[in-house]
Amino acid sequence: MLLDSQRRLEAEEKLLAKLSSRSDLAKPEAEYGKWWEEEEEKLKNMGDAAKYGSNEKYRDFRQQVWEVTHEGEAMPALFGDANQEGSDEELVISGARLTYKCPITTTWLNDPVSSKTCKHSFSRDAITDYLRAQRGECACPVGGCSRRIRAQDLYADRVLERKVARHLRQLEAEESAATYTVVR
Length: 184
Ligand SMILES: [Zn+2]
Fold this sequence. Notes:
Blueprint: H1 2-20, H2 28-45, H3 48-53, H4 56-69, H5 82-100, E1 112-115, E2 121-123, H6 124-133, E3 137-139, E4 148-150, E5 154-156, H7 158-183
Antiparallel strand pairs: 1-2, 1-5, 3-4
Bound molecules: zinc ion (ZN).
């Protein structure tokens, strides 16, 4: 793995620095070989968390992979303990709900529009009816949001529309994969 070679390179640089600071050694090559063996042993015994959890490149990489496969959701901790995994999962699920469901209908966003003032999104029909019932201006229906919404603050959110569509396709794919497993 690329990371392993990066670790080895770092270790090697460290050893070379150590070596050049020691002019007293009779057999530098032999010493170097010995140090290197110790480093290798250390690397081998390192757990994944110690080896990769602290590596920024690896974290960035994980983050990128996560964003491609779980758009709009928060990434759970890299190496959380087993007890916390459940709560991470719940956070992710509620995050997806907030992002892809209309707060008025509580179903998947349909023809989503977003507010320019607070960035909250709604199914077009739902917020249109809601606004009409409130005579053209309403408090944002999202709990905890204190912004007001008027029809002219709303814009068709094509980006979000594509995200919802992709999310639904993903769910469908997962569902059919699950069905396939059951049938087998
Ligand atoms: Zn809002």
